[in-house]
Give the backbone structure.
Amino acid sequence: QVQLVESGGGLVQPGGSLTLSCAALGIIFAAIDDMGWYCQAPGKQRELVATITRSGTITYADSVKGRSTISRDSAKNTVYLQMNSLKPEDTAVYYCYARIKYIGYWGQGTQVTVSS
């Protein structure tokens, strides 16, 4: 059974940085077609933040380009999202996402709050 376990969220000051982690359990990491993060602020639609495909193709939302870096560590079955120069508008619940063929999986979500 596939499980996505997120960590790294929390409270950070504007201009600060944090790194989100998402570990994929119960699956061979190489079998994941694409993986990344979506975010959802209260009362708003869930939106793409960043993804990386099995072949290494990376996509970023315009709002985080230049401030965020997605990467992966196959030895740990983990994908990371390093977020820098954080803004209050980045405040949201961040959900890890993975797709294996035609099946999608979601992590439990981790809260990111950017506030002074």
Remarks:
- The two ends are 40 Å apart (CA to CA).
- The first strand starts at residue 3 and ends at 7.
- The mean pLDDT is 96.
- The chain has no helices and eleven strands.
